[in-house]
Amino acid sequence: QLPTAKMAALILFVLLSVTLAHGSYLGPFEEVGPGGNCWYYFSSSEGRLATWLEARDYCHELGEILELQVDLAEVDTSKSCNSDDLMDTIKSKQDYAFHMGGSDVTVEGTWVWQHSQEVLPLSSSRWLDGLPYGDTDFNCLLATAETEHILDTAYFYDGYCDNIAPFVCQIFN
């Protein structure tokens, strides 16, 4: 027979394990798309705004708390999932442009997803026509579906890294 403190610890461990197995431990993250393994945090749901670097730091801090790999979201990489579902979710939040995990700050014109280190091709159909601007000041990726453009989904554009905007964090498996 286990002492009361050990029994309480065991019960807490079992409850936590069940909670982890069902995903509710992900707190502010929401599942996007089917399958139960694509989880994103939309900072706009909490009114949280940040620069691109602050957003990335915040994602990393969430990851440390959850003991998971969390970074700004990626689309169309080997590390991303349900890219179309994510872009559709971003489109549904039409009033926002979200910081995403891409940047060309290291080499101008070469867009790289920061978590996977995969290249985001300039030929990607996710860029709005005429983008990226190619300006050395626009080095951080944002995704939006601003109402001035009538599109089927959200699109990418390059913006200032110091823009204060909402952001999307992704749990990477």
Automatic annotation (TrEMBL):
Signal peptide: 1-23
Keywords noted in UniProt: Signal
Record Gene3D superfamilies: Mannose-Binding Protein A, subunit A
InterPro entries: C-type_lectin-like, C-type_lectin-like/link_sf, CTDL_fold
Domain C-type lectin: residue ranges: 34-170
PROSITE patterns (alphabetical): C_TYPE_LECTIN_2
Highest rank taxon of the organism: Eukaryota
Name of this protein: C-type lectin domain-containing protein
Protein species of origin: Meganyctiphanes norvegica
